[in-house]
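Quick one, probably user error.
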């Protein structure tokens, strides 16, 4: 599984980075990006990061239903 951040919609609030730093970080432009693979260990925190995003710009591909 992997996450994607719509960087055009990102407001750089930092919730995803603080919630799941294993997957999300800020890039050189100062907006969030998904830089890590979602694993069994960080899956729950990646979902929490997506839910916490105030502008709903995080997508998780291959999500377990």
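Nope, works fine. Designed sequence:
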């Amino acid at each position: 599984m992997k996450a994607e951040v719509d960087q055009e919609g990102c407001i750089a609030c930092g919730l995803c980075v603080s919630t799941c730093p294993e997957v999300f970080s800020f890039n050189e432009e100062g907006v969030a990006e998904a830089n890590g693979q979602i694993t069994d260990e960080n899956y729950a925190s990646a979902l929490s990061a997506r839910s916490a995003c105030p502008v709903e710009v995080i997508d998780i591909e291959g999500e377990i239903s």
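The domain at 2-56 is CATH 3.30.70.20 (Alpha-Beta Plaits).
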